[in-house]
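[Automated response] Your request has been received and processed.

Submitted sequence:
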Amino acid sequence: MPIFGHGNSAQAAAYLHFAWHQATGQYGYQQHWVAEHHQTVVGLVTCWHDHLGEDFGRETLRSISRFYDVEAALDVLLRSQQLTGELAGPGPHELGIGHLAIHPLWRRQGIGAALLTFMQQQARQLSKQELTLAVHHHNTPARLFYLAQGFTEHYHHGRFIQLTRQVAAQVKEKEGPARDC
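Generated structure:
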């Protein structure tokens, strides 16, 4: 179910571009991390957790209502709520991966795995024990990718499969004299 643009991908892209520049809220750049190659974005990841603050929802709503007229904004919110009803938000011990996208020309080059490693570091900084995400049950390539990255299927709900992965403890290097192997 498309949330933005009601099937009009140009309008959806225009909104997401607008929201990105608002900085805050669900679609603002402060919630996204990008992978770049020679100053070109080749991948993107975003996450959700319980430390987002009270302004997170307000700023998301503000970006929607600034871009769309009242009727269209209400339509976007309705479709968003319908989709949200099918997804489980992250619990207090989880960091939820909201979006992970890699430009088609850059897939299968380790960028997705690197972004997940970065999210694992974020999870450790926030004292989270699990990464969690939802994938559409028809998205077999994404599901296989996440399984290869150590995620396990937690449960199925509607059109989505919830996957989780334990956050690995950070390995500390032993201090001592350097030695050759």
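Summary generated for your ticket: The beta strands are 32-37, 40-48, 94-102, 130-136, 152-157, 160-166. The chain has a mean pLDDT of 83.
If you did not submit this request, please reply to this message.
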